[in-house]
Amino acid sequence: MRVRADSTPPASIAADVLAVPIYKEDRELSGDLAELDAASGGAISRAIEWGEFNIVEHYTALIDGGDLAADRVLLVNGVRRGRGAWRARRMASTATRRLQGRGASRLAFWLRDGEDADAYVAAAVGARQGTYRPHTIYGRVRDTEAMLRSVEELVFVGDSVPAGDDLERGVIMAEGVEFGRTLANRASNDLYPEKMADVARELEADGCTVEVLDVEQMQALGMGALLGVGQGATHEPRLIAIKLPGWETASPERRLAIVGKGVCFDSGGISIKPADKMEEMKHDKSGAAAVIAAARTVARLNPDAPLMAVAPMVENMPGGNAQRPGDVVKAMNGKTIEVTNTDAEGRLILADALHWAEQQGATHLVDIATLTGAAMVAFGDLISCYFARPREWGAEVARAADATGEWVWEMPLATEYRPAYDSAHADIVNSGSRDASLIKSAVFIADFVTKPWVHLDIAGAAYLSADKATNPKGAVGTGVTTLAQLALDFARGS
Question: Is 3.40.220.10 the CATH number for 2-162?
């Protein structure tokens, strides 16, 4: 999708469709919206009065443009969570998704209200998200040429549209999100640990250094926690590390590692999951997809950023050699872990990957994972939760999320729950009681990290189980822009 700015007033912009946000406070059209309505010959007010659009009931309404230069006007529900990147991103994705299959090639978007550059960058990301079609990964015979039509050009209009560099940043961020969500959406028989390593090696074309550890190399390093998860699968585990050029030249006092959970398929292992919706467990690699996509994005925006992406890749399968409840494994940091639930596998692979990242010189860490069903229950599909030590480092991650239109919420890292993981046979068990299980999952990981660290649980927000106005069913690309923006901010602070 091409993205550009145009100083032409909204009423005069020539486009197939002009998207116009309508907010809760617009019950009486006033100001610039009233001026646009007058220029249209009252088309907007008539649609609202007739009931074609109501902010309580409708996401969008596509109406005739009346006397405007644009052929049609798309009224878009201005979501209620304040101004800024989050609102802009969701409105843009809603708009382009509404136009899928229509004859709209050029979309003019008027954000109104003097939004800042971050909002426009987020809107560019959102617009690309709205055109995403997961079924094109493998193709569908029934899709006609008309069905596959999408917006090809996005034109921002208004007084506060930023310079071209900001819009180009939005385009690259949007490409990163699409790359990451496609990785997460790919089927488990198509994208398994060895194949994900092949994907990562493609980043060498962007100037990155890619290292892939196989089973023997991980055994030599003592990664018993990671290897134990994957020992029942036909496809062997891999540990992928992607280093940007800036990693090697950075000060040893300031290097950022982003670590993503990469379970290409999670059956639960011997502690097998229920059959219902188990096909969604191909998305358990969403964390790994996010860090690989973020690394590619940052490499294209600022290759001098001191960034390393680490993706521990496994399949959690109930094979004849699978890990059993009651097994004891030794992690890379020397701690022994009693495995009481083989479906609590994500924290095991993160334990070794985070420690390895520290050994590589990481001074600050963020892990991202579809870790717990409790996160989905607590926060649904809009919000990701995070835990931080120290909290100041978590605040930097939250600022990056806010700037790119992702919604995160801090949870307490209550280490007082640590005794719930006590074991009679090892240093720690991998699964505690159900009460406070969301918090306890982070407390477990904290046992294996010594540097400033944030744990981001995207279990609810990583993928959708049904189509929504903003995105189709499947992976959403959650975390890619947050991690990329964090790395860019981190580089500026070096």
Answer: yes
